[in-house]
Each structure stands twice: as C-alpha cells, then as structure tokens.
Predict the 3D structure of the following.
Amino acid sequence: MISQPIRLEGQYFDGNQPIAVRAVLAFEGQEAILTVSQISERYFSQRLSVSPRIGGADRFINLPNGAQVQCSHHVILDSLPQESLSEGPVAWLEERWGVALIGVAIIAAILLVGYFYGLPAAAKHVTSRIPIKTEQTLGRQALDWLDNNKWFKPTTLEKDKQERIRNGFDVLRSDLPFKDRYRLEFRDSTFMGPNAMALPGGTIVITDDMVKAAESQEEVLAILAHEIGHVELRHSLRSILQNSAVAVVAATVTSDAASLSIAVAGLPVLLAQTKYSREFETEADDYAFKLLKKRNYSPAAFASIMERLAEKQEGKKRSLSFISTHPVTEDRVKRARAAAQQ
C-alpha cells in the first residue's frame, strides 16, 4: 500500500493508434488513477505490469486494457509486478561497468580460444568425414569460374615442357592416398604472375610465369609438392569451413545475412586469394620436403625458387603472386635447407 500519493507524468498509448497523448498516472493506496485529457480511470495497482529497467531509459506500464503509459523511472515502479522475473539481477548488472567489462573480456576470450583452437579442430574433424569426391566438384566449379571470369588464360607453354612436368608430377603423386584425384592444370595469368594453387579435391593450377621463373624442373616439382601437401592435408576445404563459420558468426552478431551471401558467392575469389595460416603452410612445407626426399629430389630446390621469387617481388607493386598468397619467411627457407641436409 502507498501511504503518500505519487504522480507520474508520461505518454499514453491506447494500443490502437501509434500516437502518444500526455497523461498522468497517480498512485494512491492500492489504486492507480490514470488521467488522460478530461477522462480518469482507476486500476488496482497489482494488475499493472512494468517493463524491465534498462539504465536510465523510460519504462512502460502495461494497463489491463492493453494500453501503455511511458514514463521516466521512479522507485515506485519497482514495487509493481514486473514483466521479467530476472529484472532485478539484470538491472544490478547493467548498473556496474566493472561487471560488464569482465563479461566482455570473458566473451572475447571464449571467441579467441574458439577461433584459434576450437574452430580449426572442428574443421579438421568435419573435413575428414566429407568424401573427396564432393570436394572435387567444388574444385572444378571454382576453376571454371576463374577461367570464365578471365582470371586465367590458356597456357602458352610448349607441349613437350608441359609433358615433362606432368611426368614428374605423376611420379610425385604415384602412391599418395588421393593419387587418382589429381588434375594438373597449366594457365597463363598476367594478373596472378608466378603462382600455383591447390583447389579443393586435387586440382592444382600452376601459371606459365611460375614455370618460367624456375631454373630447373626440380624447382617446379618442389612447388607442386608443396601444393600436393595442401591437397593431401585438405587445407582448402578446412580453410573454407573455417572462413564460413566466421562468416556465420559475423552475420549472426551483426544481423546481416547479406554478408554470408557475399561470402558464399565470392568463394572462387576466396580460393584464388587464400593466404593459408602459418600452421597450414608449415604442414604443407614439411609434407613437401618429405615427399621430395622420398622421390630423390632435394628440398633445397624449394628454398632456391622461393628466395628468387622473393627477390623479384621486392619493390614491385603488390599482386597475387606466389609470394603474396604463400608468405615467405627466412624460417621456411632455413627449414627447407635443413631438410635437404638431413
């Protein structure tokens, strides 16, 4: 029961028209008296309900007839029936910046741990259960898109050079788990320069400029061995799954479904521009070094062509070359030379 009359001024909404009317809601004893214009109505206070308290925002008092009164917060509103039973704890949390900051920090930590550890583990688990045949279809579609949109042009390499490289490539893949799934494609591309990429399902593309940049077939095969590593370890699909998961989370957080559609529509471009994580690159390097030594080639060939490409790239305009899409570090070159001496 309210011992002293209390008057709250606010806006009245009748529930039928989106037009507010000035109103006064007075509390006396166990009654609430609403005055709108020259009309007054009485309600039992405990039949009203009040919207949750959110900072200093106005609150809404719900009347039994479906109408509402919007007014500033007053302590009396906390004594009325509340729409949400959790209003007290929520309001308590909202008023404490320290608690909010701790909550944000915890959420950020969870997201970071999920991104760096949980997401890669989940992508690897899911990828192992997707048939390589399904992945092949995706790779063919991506290559067709890149061809049709002029990212690539037909190769100008001599037939005999292509044949020699294909023969060496066949030796590299001869006893690998996905040996029957590989397609080696030669393409010319002024846009991408000296480059090579592994598309999902075993399609490997190497550009004419990359072949011309090599000083020996062994260097070409070293590059192809690296791309084979990406295929055998299924890095393309794992990268797609991880990036897609990030897009889904971003679309959920921002309520922007268009961002997810754009990510899916731009998949071929994503594959062309992919910068694998340092972990993926290290895995592909190590796989390539072992494969090269198994086939009686030296991993030093990989170090040589990487160093030469890096030197040519210095000072030039940034492009989608092998150097930009496969970051070169001194550590990678050192590991290649170390593997050659083992």
Q: What stands out?
A: DSSP finds 13 helices and eleven strands in the chain.
